[in-house]
Amino acid sequence: MIVGVGIGGAKDQCVTLGKEASCLRLVGDRHPDPLVAALELELLELGNRTMIGIMGFQSDTPVTDVHVEIAYTHTGGLPVGISELCHAVRRATARIYNDGRVEYREDPQWFTPYYRREGAEYVPGEPQPSTKGGEGMKGLAQLGELKRAQSNGASLPHSPLPTPNSALVTNGKKKVHRESREWHLNIPLQEADVRKLRAGDVVYLTGCIFTARDGVFKYMIDEGHEPPIPIRDHFNVTTQSSPAGTETSPGKYMVNSLQATAGFRYAQWMDRLMERHGVRAVLNKGGMSQQMYQTVFKKHGAVCLSTMPYGIGAIYGKAVTGVRDVYWKELLGISEAMWLLEVKELGPLLVDGDSEGNSYVAEHAEEVNAPLIEIYKDLPQLILKRFGEVTDPTEELIK
User: Fold this and answer.
1) Angle at 308 between CA 303 and CA 314, to 5 degrees
2) Distances (CA, A) of 171 to 174, 252, 365
3) Cα distance between residue 38 and residue 25, in whole Å
């Protein structure tokens, strides 16, 4: 991800600066103020030391870059706004002329010297006070040292990074590593198909799946309306998704992208969905809680499949070979309607929760949390303890 940090200004301005910093600067760009540039590098390194990557899984380089923007403020407040730009980066900059011409640019050139001006006496082309030697902050000398250090491959001092395997030994016991397997399955899924899947396996699906979000679940589960398709016998895989699709002509649809939404939002309907309609697999983003797997999915012999990673909705969309129908469109709207999608080799999909109640995320939580514990050891004591900040890392870790 790309992290944007806005420091200073009013509480609304710092949030805007953080958003702009994450979205409107290019990777590798450094702030002209040497202290801010040094802070960007320090935060970049610190972010990568967490080793928490896409969907909470371990990664050597989870942070692509950190951009910081600043504004004048009273130090008694000093608001900070942080924005994390998703890996699915979609950005374009264009100028549209009156005569219809469109000019695209690779560099949005958002943070111009004028945008970053430090006072009313701004002179185009002249350096700002904070970057002049001996004035403002620490001057261009420090920026030169920073650039020389970068060119020599140096980085900010830190303690050694924890290795991915260091968390495999917990409480004196070494975890048994299990190789994930790849499965290509046809829909409708049979009980034997589901029972052989284990957390961490990768699945590709072929057949017909139906979409279900809040609208479908409320109408079909809460209000008790019968589904328009035989779910149990023919279409026992659902995805919590609103396809990026359009109706090209009456009754004809085209899907360009398919990406599921967060699974935890729909936990309240899973028990009744599986009990009444025999759903064997639920496809969403990020899975659900271990408790859900142990109490509901295990009870019904079902699995939870998670998309992986963010930003590949177009790849999933290519697996959609057709749209059989879109049900309850007038009642619920096209985004909340039930889409019946024909898919071929839809994947890769991660088995986040299996029919035995195992959770892939829970199994790897200690491994993911280990780098954070190492980072906390190097952090200074908090200054404003009276506001409730904590120094115990276990109070902030993923459970």
Assistant:
1) 115
2) 8, 58, 14
3) 16
